[in-house]
């Protein structure tokens, strides 16, 4: 109860506060230190008590396999080590994984989870390994031990895509492929959440099969949308029939929309962008009420569940990528009031009753609201978003820290705990919290620094514009152009970047504000949209020329 009261006080002045508390440099650094300590408390306890199992069980101080048998927490936490500045441990773990992880195992694995956590984690670590001081092999980033591991894992998933529709099964046996008794029913996100990892793989390895299957699945889903432009949340991958017809932005659907938009940005792909915009319009039209998003019947648009799900809290962050800061902020504010009520977000929250929903009272330390705070803070600089981060640190420490790690909250009403620490706590929750309080982190690079890499030292890497997959693994979009056989494209890109950095000499006193204004000079937008659209939607990337075009497309959405 005490923690609850404390939380209520900490959250007392949320958004639109009259005197929003600005954080001093010292306070920022204080929270970074606190978040680092949280990371190491969880991470070291995983290593001591749980490795090589997938997850730590924080109440019994031991480990268990959950999503497979691949030391999942270690794979998921690897890039967080680098973001926290721990190069030596990153190097040690990268070697450990290369020597010990093996995907030739008789395990029934979730195609979705294996992709976002394992393939995504390994790809991100592969792309960051030079930054982490690893002596990369010749040909990197088009080859390397972590890339081979990622490719190996992804190949194990490919049999799932052999269906009449191209939509994948939900589960695959890593050794034997899809079981003959496997159910053809899977969720929408399980069909539409591959394009970021799979297109990165295809570009790096030169094998188009990954991007092809991911795109085919996206297009197949698109064709099944209802007359009012919505998709349900479970579909039969053999017949394309919708089995569960609730449409919304949360569980079962969420990352499908996320990957359409992020895929559009990463691949500069207007087809994906148009799909996203069409869905976005229907979502606003049929599911949005008072800046909440409800669940509706996908054909009729009638409300089926007036609930807010914890997983939906990523939406304001995604909206910020298309420049819709105002709507994002209002929705974020709604979600914060729920956090304030419980010191965490229950899995489901009934909007009319203003309370939790039976059997869905847990908070497994999910990242989504913190993720949105990070994007919105980057977009606006409004310290109100830091306050959510502060509240998250305070309540997670108070409520879920135990001797051997951090435990999921079983029930936000009484803060009882569960014997589980999901790998996304280290991959996402801690990472987004840290990045929220570390505006100078290399991940926030706006193109002022970069390095040359690739087989002939002729491609540009680390210039920023990282795209986070749905497990918070950052992917460097510039790397997609690095292994292309097309030499012309590469030199064109390099010319663009070099000319960009010439105007762009970093100077000591260059504030974010100044950067924002320079961006707006380069990317023509309608004046009112200017600052909002730019600061986040198109983080300055190496492909600035093409982004100018995209910038206009993005701003049309509001
Ligand atoms: C990196 O992580 C390891 C393992 O937790 C720890 O022993 C070491 O002190 C860390 N180094 C830094 C610079 O934080
Ligand atoms: C995988 O699933 C199939 C079908 O349900 C089952 O027959 C098999 O025993 C499972 N294998 C493992 C290792 O759990
Ligand atoms: C929005 O909904 C109304 C009915 O509620 C419908 O007439 C209109 O066509 C919809 N617009 C879009 C873009 O879906």
TrEMBL record:
Presence of the UniProt keyword Endoplasmic reticulum in the record: yes
Protein name: alpha-1,2-Mannosidase
Entry keyword set: Calcium, Endoplasmic reticulum, Glycoprotein, Glycosidase, Hydrolase, Metal-binding, Signal, Unfolded protein response
The keyword Transmembrane helix is annotated on this UniProt entry: no
Primary enzyme class: hydrolase
EC number: 3.2.1.-
Cofactor(s) demanded: Ca(2+)
Native source organism of the sequence: Pangasianodon hypophthalmus (Striped catfish)
Role according to the record: Involved in the endoplasmic reticulum-associated degradation (ERAD) pathway that targets misfolded glycoproteins for degradation in an N-glycan-dependent manner. May initiate ERAD by promoting the first mannose trimming step of ERAD substrates, from Man9GlcNAc2 to Man8GlcNAc2. Seems to recognize and bind to exposed hydrophobic regions in target proteins.
């Amino acid at each position: 109860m005490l923690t609850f009261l404390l939380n209520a006080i900490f959250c007392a002045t949320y958004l639109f506060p009259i005197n929003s508390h600005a954080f001093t440099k010292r306070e920022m650094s204080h929270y970074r230190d606190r978040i680092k300590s949280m990371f190491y408390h969880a991470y070291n306890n995983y290593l001591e008590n749980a490795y090589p199992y997938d997850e730590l069980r924080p109440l019994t101080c031991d480990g268990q396999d959950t999503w497979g048998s691949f030391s999942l927490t270690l794979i998921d936490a690897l890039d967080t080590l680098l973001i926290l500045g721990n190069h030596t441990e990153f190097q040690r773990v990268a070697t450990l994984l290369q020597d010990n992880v093996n995907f030739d195992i008789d395990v029934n694995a979730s195609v979705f989870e294996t992709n976002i956590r394992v393939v995504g984690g390994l790809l991100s670590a592969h792309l960051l390994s030079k930054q982490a001081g690893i002596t990369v092999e010749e040909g990197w980033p088009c080859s390397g031990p972590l890339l081979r591991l990622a490719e190996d894992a992804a190949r194990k998933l490919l049999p799932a895509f052999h269906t009449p529709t191209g939509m994948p099964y939900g589960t695959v046996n890593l050794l034997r492929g899809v079981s003959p008794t496997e159910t053809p029913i899977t969720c929408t996100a399980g069909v539409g959440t591959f394009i970021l990892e799979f297109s990165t793989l295809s570009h790096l390895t030169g094998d188009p099969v990954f991007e092809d299957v991911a795109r085919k699945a996206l297009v197949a889903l698109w064709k099944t949308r209802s007359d009012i432009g919505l998709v349900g949340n479970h579909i039969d991958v053999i017949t394309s029939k919708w089995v569960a017809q609730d449409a919304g932005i949360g569980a079962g659907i969420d990352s499908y929309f996320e990957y359409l938009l992020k895929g559009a940005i990463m691949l500069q792909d207007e087809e994906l962008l148009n799909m996203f915009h069409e869905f976005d319009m229907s979502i606003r039209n049929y599911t949005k009420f008072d800046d909440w998003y409800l669940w509706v019947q996908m054909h009729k648009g009638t409300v089926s569940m007036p609930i807010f799900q914890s997983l939906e809290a990523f939406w304001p962050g995604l909206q910020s990528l298309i420049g819709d800061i105002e709507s994002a902020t209002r929705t974020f504010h709604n979600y914060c009031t729920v956090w304030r009520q419980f010191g965490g977000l229950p899995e489901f929250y009934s909007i009319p009753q203003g309370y939790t929903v039976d059997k869905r009272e847990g908070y497994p330390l999910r990242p989504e609201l913190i993720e949105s705070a990070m994007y919105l803070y980057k977009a606006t600089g409004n310290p109100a978003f830091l306050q959510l981060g502060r509240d998250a640190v305070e309540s997670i420490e108070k409520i879920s820290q135990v001797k051997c790690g951090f435990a999921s909250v079983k029930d936000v009403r009484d803060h009882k705990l569960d014997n589980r620490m999901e790998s996304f706590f280290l991959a996402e929750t801690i990472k987004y919290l840290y990045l929220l309080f570390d505006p100078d982190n290399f991940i926030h690079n706006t193109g002022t620094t970069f390095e040359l890499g690739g087989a002939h030292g002729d491609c540009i890497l680390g210039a920023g514009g990282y795209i986070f997959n749905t497990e918070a693994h950052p992917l460097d979009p510039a790397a997609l152009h690095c292994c292309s056989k097309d030499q012309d494209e590469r030199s064109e890109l390099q010319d663009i970047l070099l000319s960009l950095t010439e105007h762009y000499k970093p100077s000591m006193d260059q504030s974010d504000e100044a950067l924002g204004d320079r961006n707006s000079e380069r990317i023509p937008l309608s004046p009112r949209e200017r600052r909002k659209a730019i600061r986040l939607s198109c983080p300055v990337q190496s492909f600035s020329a093409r982004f100018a075009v995209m910038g206009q497309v993005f701003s049309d959405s509001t």
